[in-house]
What we know:
Blueprint: H1 10-16, E1 25-30, E2 44-49, E3 67-71, E4 80-85, E5 98-103, E6 112-116, H2 120-126, E7 148-151, H3 186-200, H4 212-237, H5 246-254, E8 267-274, E9 279-283, H6 291-297, E10 304-308, E11 316-318, H7 322-329, E12 334-337, E13 341-344, E14 350-351, E15 361-362, E16 368-372, E17 383-388, E18 405-418, E19 433-440, E20 450-451, E21 454-456, E22 459-461, E23 465-468, E24 471-476, E25 478-484, E26 521-522, E27 529-530, H8 542-545, E28 554-555, E29 557-561, E30 564-570, E31 583-588, E32 594-598, E33 613-619, E34 632-637, H9 640-643, E35 651-655, H10 669-675, H11 689-698, E36 704-713, E37 718-726, H12 734-744, E38 752-757, E39 760-772, H13 778-788, E40 813-814, H14 815-823, E41 828-838, E42 851-852, E43 858-861, E44 873-880
Parallel strand pairs: 11-34, 30-31, 37-38, 39-43, 39-44
Antiparallel strand pairs: 1-2, 2-5, 3-6, 4-5, 6-7, 8-24, 8-35, 9-13, 10-12, 10-34, 12-24, 14-23, 15-20, 16-19, 17-18, 17-23, 18-19, 21-22, 25-33, 26-32, 27-28, 29-30, 29-33, 31-32, 36-37, 39-41, 40-42
Helix pairs in contact: 3-4
Amino acid sequence: MKFFCCDDGRRAAALKNPQVPLNGIEFVEVLDKRDDPPGLRQRLLFVNFLKKLTPTGQAGALSLNNVLIEGGERIKDVRIKSVTAGAAGPAPFNNPEVLVVEVAEPGDFSTYTLRLVEDAARARAQGPGLPDSPFRRPPAGFDPVLSAVDFSFKVLCESDFDCRREETCPPPAAEPLEINYLAKDYASFRQLMLDRMATTAPWWRERNPADLGVALVELLAYVGDYLSYRQDAVATESYLSTARLRSSVRRHARLVDYYIGDGANARVWVHLRVRKGVSNLLLESFRDEKADEVKAAGKKKIFARFLTRVPGTQKVLPIDSAAYGRALEARPQVFEPLHDLPLFEAHNELYFYTWGARECCLPKGATRATLRGRINELKPGHVLVLTEMLGPQTGQKADADPAHRHAVRLVSVTTGEDPVGGRFEEPPTNAPVPVTEITWHTEDALPFPLCVSTLVGTVFHADVSVALGNIVLADHGLRVEGEPLPEVPGPDPALTRVSAREGNSCAAEPLEPTPARYRPRLRGAPLSQAAPFDFKDTNISATAAVRQPSRELLPVVSLDEAGVPERWRPRRDLLASGAAAREFVAEVEEDGVTYLRFGDDRFGSRPAAGARLTATYRVGNGTAGNVGADSLVHFASNDPAFVTDPLNSPLLSVRNPLAAQGGAEPETLERVRQDAPEAFRTQERAVTTDDYAEAARTRCGVEVQRAAASMRWTGSWHTVFVTVDRFGGREVDAGFESELRRCLERYRMAGHDLEVEAPNFVSLEVEMTVCVKHGYLKSDVRRALLEQFSARQLPGGGRGLFHPDNFSFGQPVFLSSLYAAAQSVAGVDSVDITVFGRQGVAGSSGIDAGRLDFGRLEIARLDNDPDFPERGVFKLHVKGGR
């Protein structure tokens, strides 16, 4: 038998063992110089031996009849002309270990075998069919294994292939088995194996359950049943219509750019009332963003929490107390503050100042007010909740309307004084009264009129409504700190990938260890889902602060790794994560359990084997967090300033004047199955100018009545100018522009620059003469007409003709609409409009045409505001009447 071996130690043994005087062939060289004549090339063979050869003519020397060359395909019989042994050969091959063999002609490209035999002539006469012939045995003194060597005459010829010969060891052909592919459960697998054993081992007929063979069959049947179930489960999860796992549905939907919603936690404004004399008491919040700062400074982590009502529990609870543990056993809803807040006793309640006027109301749409007193600690960015405290009709606290509460965020605070304010005090004085002027975001404009003072019978109530300070924004979810996760396992040797060896089995193939699957789960549920929030951004209004865009929602969880300062952060997916990014995906299943999925060192980093991770996350999500107003009554903290003496804490009470909002349940799988297949049809990019305008109006979640876009070449690229008409004619300020640009960025085409502009308002000038019917008061008709042609919200709920929301881009103004509006006022007998055109533009009258036309980016405006006459003027002449 001929073996193929990777390590041949026979040559080394023949050389190192002096007690065995055997010689043998080491290798063969073919003399083939490119400069030699063609008749001389490949004619000399230099056979190198392990030991010295005996010179020709001596006993034991090799002669012409001892060398035999076999093989060949086209040239089969290669005749040997001469054999010269030892130092008698030509230089530089006059080596005592070299045998020079000269052939009559070179062989072909096939492999030949040079063999040392006893009698080459007789061996050649017998032919190669008798390998065991005594004439083919090696001469005396030569190793039987090392007396033959394979070589090629064309070894120096040009070739594109490796000269090393590949040895293949194909596996034996397996006998095909008859397999019943309908076997899918334990019983059918068991029967299948017993039937097979009856064919392969007919002598084994044991069927006793206690028999070892039967036990093995049943064990394998159990494993097959489990694997069959897993196979069916994988097939089930492979399709959106049949998948049962929420993680599978999420991945199917992501293929068509559909993000499945895992719900959202709720946010609420919380009012904290502190004791008298408290000033600048800091309420600290602990967020993940502060973790590195707290750790570097060596500070203690301060936590604060607000709990819904738990009967029989005190209002202030130390976090490490037994009372707090008992309160949590009652499963209240827990909220935590989103930002730090300094607390002041003066901010418990702030009172409006009406400059001596009585029976006053803040109108709907108000964005400014005056507070009594010099409130120096009130800063832009603070939030106030305007609250009705008494019923305006009765003056009773129980009759206050809970719906008349509204949160506003301040953009400016100015202190001053009323020099004659003392005259309105009881008793009157000549001293000035300090006041504080406040202005809040236009997005927080009052959605209803708010009564400030009222007269009930003969009793005057000055503080029907107040502004509550010490307001902090909190969101739903209880923090779980440092939950240990299972240790990251190392590669499983049983799963090591071994490449199939083809050809030379001696070539070392690198092993590919398969990382063990690491998908830890969190013990707490449901995991909070929240949008990132930065309260330091003063451009965010109170209305926007409680609003969480669905595409910005992320699971509130982070991971710490022992000995590594950088934290692991959550992402919605890992498609945009780099190979070294310490990011992961939190996948929530239908039962609320959360599993953590890591990257593969290509899309996201994979935790190193042996790493120990701890999870910090929050539990609380969905509509359960949408608690009603005045539901939060307990405060828990580990801050000594609040809980050292809970019964005498500087914090008197906590409450939420407004209901929590924003909590949403996870999207149902059936909803995903219906909506996801249509997701790819949704236009998610802005190609034309109409696409930009449509995205600004309908997809950005900002209050835009209408938008128009135009594209211009600005010298180096195309710039899209988006002109926005906001509801109520509000200004396109920096905060609104930043929010809109951030939204439009996801729709912007590459190569397009983006600019947001305010509309081009065109001021109008209208002059009207009205004749009043007999019996009507001229002043009443005049007041009604001015309201009808105003740009304000009317008391009855309607809008004036020139309200900003009545006109938008390019919308014409018809003269007939002015006549109709005037005639609708009771007491108007006749109307004559003498001026109807653009303000200050000669020849722009629309009386003859009956209409005023405007350009694509122009909007008609007539505010009739004496402070801003450039915004349009309405002149009214009233005749007749009383």
